[in-house]
UniProtKB/TrEMBL annotation:
Name of the protein: Alpha-1,3-mannosyl-glycoprotein 4-beta-N-acetylglucosaminyltransferase A
GO BP terms, alphabetized: protein N-linked glycosylation
Sequence intervals crossing the membrane: 7-27
Coiled coil (UniProt feature): none
Cellular component aspect of the GO annotation: endoplasmic reticulum; endoplasmic reticulum-Golgi intermediate compartment; Golgi stack
Domain of life: Eukaryota
């Protein structure tokens, strides 16, 4: 028994040391990634989020070890009672040791314990195998920029899964495939053969994506789910619907917790959607460009739980809220309530609450995903929801550009500032510029530019384009007005070019108008590619 205690103590110490090592390693790796091209602030926020995720993982591991110790003490207590009952007498040193462990167990019960998944799903206590996929087809890819989760179930008439996966994979460039992870979650815990069937089909259809780690398939164990036959019926829903929505909440919980350690962002989809080409870079750029680090949710579709992007580091808190009320309401309602509880004040009115939620729940337009299925996962239900925003062309395109301050002599309209266009938050919209007006981009610090792209006008205002406007740059060390012309807007309202190798570090890049156009002007896209920019 003494050896068992020593082994347990060593296990706890080893676990803490391992978590500390992982934490320090992540710090050292993050320090090596410090950029030199001006995007220090973005990298700092990313590093901060990764450290936060590492700390949460470390705390969770420590809690798991404490729970293991509690369970061990409990078993020792049982041994004590059984031994006393059988022998009817004190069994010497062994009895003393066991009584000591029993006292430790009593002390543990008297201390405070933080909630965990076992608080909300108590049937999982003592069954660690219930927290692991019962089926897994994976090449174990970690460190993805975006993890995409796709729950799927057996449908009676038609399956949209292969169409959905094909749409996602075909919309990725080769570089984007290295940064993405797609996890198909077969939510049929009582039908493992079906999960194997889905895995075999996807492996046959997308062999390269499975072998290189882009695509993986998992299925949860039946033991993860509690008794689903005695659920309280609420909101006038039938017993079948309550069972369906409760299981769906637990499906999302398992998938999100499994996926959170695999990448920086997590996106929730469904198994019957199609994606717009270029969706990955748009999502990543839009997420990276959010200067307010307090955001909770980015939406790339208006429908249900489709196209919802989260920071992986925040998933444990969100999932815990889902688990608290997984028997009570559907997942999209719970998400609304979570945001309301997080940012709304009971002392303020509904309008104030709406504005506060808008600060942490940001919507990208137009939608990147469209719902194509008509057969719901709830048997007998027809689902004809369509995202009306999906077919619209984007009014602007976001890119992660080098750090810079953007100013202009043009008169902007309402909230459409030039700086917002540069960071990919909105368009720049101005009244007709006069000859000599400029839009100046001052890089901090100066950068070596490989190429540039300026796109004027958009789908809603096709004639609001720059005409007879030059693109000029000022090299570091140059004085006065020694700008060098490196391009100009064409008849389509686009200025795009590569920078000659002879050009060194660039201090400023500007647009200079030579005439006064008949219409207002819009800049819908700005992309400055630096020579040191990571193409991944």
């Amino acid at each position: 028994m003494g050896r068992m205690r020593a082994n347990l103590k060593n296990l706890v110490i080893s676990g803490i040391v391992a978590c500390s090592f992982i934490f320090l390693w992540m710090i050292s790796v993050s320090k090596q990634d410090v950029p030199t091209d001006g995007r220090v602030e973005d990298k700092y926020l990313e590093m901060q989020a990764r450290l936060e995720m590492a700390e949460q993982t470390s705390r969770q591991r420590f809690t798991d070890l404490q729970m293991l110790r509690n369970q061990f003490n409990f078993l020792v207590g049982l041994v004590t009672n059984n031994s006393t009952v059988r022998n009817g007498t004190d069994s010497g040193p062994f009895s003393n040791l066991v009584n000591e462990q029993g006292q430790n167990f009593s002390d543990q019960l008297a201390s405070l314990h933080l909630p965990s998944i076992f608080t909300y799903l108590p049937h999982l206590t003592g069954h660690p195998e219930s927290l692991k996929p019962v089926y897994k087809l994976s090449n174990n890819r970690f460190g993805a920029s975006i993890v995409i989760g796709i729950p799927t179930i057996r449908r009676d008439k038609v399956s949209y899964l292969s169409q959905t996966v094909a749409s996602l994979i075909s919309g990725l460039s080769r570089e984007e495939q290295d940064m993405c992870l797609i996890i198909v979650f077969v939510a049929e815990p009582w039908d493992k053969p079906y999960a194997v069937e889905v895995g075999d089909e996807l492996k046959q259809t997308f062999p390269d994506s499975v072998s290189n780690g882009l695509l993986e398939v998992i299925s949860p164990p039946a033991e993860f789910y509690p008794d689903m036959d005695n659920l309280k019926q609420t909101f006038g829903d039938t017993k079948e619907r309550v069972r369906w929505r409760t299981k769906q909440n637990l499906d999302f919980t398992f998938l999100m917790l499994y996926a959170r350690t695999r990448g920086f962002y997590y996106v929730q989809l469904e198994d019957d959607v199609i994606a717009k080409p270029g969706y990955f870079s748009i999502m990543k750029t839009y997420a990276d460009s959010q200067k307010n680090s307090d955001w909770v949710l980015l939406e790339f579709s208006t429908l249900g739980f489709i196209g919802k992007l989260f920071k992986s580091s925040q998933i444990p808190v969100i999932v815990e809220f889902f688990l608290m009320f997984h028997r009570d309401k559907p997942i999209d309602w719970l998400l609304d309530h979570f945001l309301n509880v997080k940012v709304c004040s009971p002392e303020k009115d509904k309008k104030h609450c709406t504005n506060m939620i808008a600060e942490v729940r940001k919507r990208f337009k137009p939608s990147l995903f469209q719902h194509v299925g008509t057969q719901s996962s709830l048997k007998g239900k027809t689902q004809k929801l369509k995202d009306r925003d999906f077919g619209k062309q984007a009014i602007f395109r976001a890119h992660v550009n080098p750090n810079a301050v953007v100013t202009t002599t043009m008169k902007h309209y309402q909230k459409y500032f030039a700086q917002k266009a540069y960071v990919g938050e909105d368009i720049f919209w101005a009244t007709p510029p006069k000859p000599g007006d400029t839009l100046d981009i001052e890089f901090k610090p100066p950068v070596a530019i490989e190429s540039f792209l300026f796109r004027s006008g958009n789908a809603d205002h096709k004639d609001d384009k720059f005409k007879d406007t030059d693109v000029e740059l000022l090299e570091e060390g140059s004085t006065g007005d020694n700008y060098v012309k490196v391009g100009a807007f064409n008849d389509e309202g686009i200025a795009s070019n590569s920078i000659p190798e002879s050009i060194g570090l660039v201090k400023k890049l500007r647009l200079k108008c030579n005439i006064e156009p008949a219409n207002w002007v819009i800049i819908s896209e700005i992309h400055i590619v630096t020579k040191k920019e990571d193409k991944r």
